[in-house]
Design a protein that fits this description.
With 143 residues, this protein is an alpha/beta fold. The protein contains 5 helices and 7 strands; from the N terminus they run E-H-E-H-E-H-E-E-E-H-E-H. The protein is globular and about 35 Å long.
Length: 143
């Protein structure tokens, strides 16, 4: 059976999905659609449940907080399929020091819940394509 990843996280014109997709050798579901509808919402819920992995990439283009809630919820309920990554710069936007510290705390929480916390899109692609181990405890940023 082929593996599939749900590409959740920052939208708002962020191009992280377009950078990651060519690096993936597994199937993926991209929830970004031109027109949001009830049908798109229902499909997103179904895909998030059925995919082998739920990836949440957070970038400075994030304007809402729902993806943070989703990654924490998934890391509690489905830790083996939860993957979290932050990108500190997106176009000309960067996280503030306080935001970085908060996201590090989220990453540690995902990791401590048993989820996978990876630090860049190359590591995400390696993990999804080859099933590399999650980041060892002694390599967690901020530990």
């Amino acid at each position: 059976m082929d593996k599939k990843v749900f590409l959740g996280g920052t939208c708002n014109g962020s191009q992280w999905r377009e950078i990651l997709k060519p690096k993936l050798t597994i199937d993926y579901y991209d929830p970004v659609v031109p027109h949001w509808s009830e049908e798109a919402y229902q499909r997103e819920l179904r895909e998030r449940e059925e995919c082998d992995y739920c990836l949440y990439v957070i970038t400075p283009k994030m304007t809402g907080f729902y993806s943070i809630a989703e990654v924490i919820d998934d890391s509690n309920k489905r830790p083996n399929k939860t993957v979290f990554c932050t990108i500190d710069k997106d176009d000309d936007l960067m996280f503030s020091k306080k935001q970085v510290n908060s996201l590090l705390a989220v990453g540690r929480m995902v990791h401590n819940n048993g989820g996978h916390w990876l630090i860049n899109l190359d590591d995400v692609a390696l993990f999804l394509n080859e099933g590399i181990e999650k980041v060892p405890d002694d390599q967690i940023i901020g530990e």
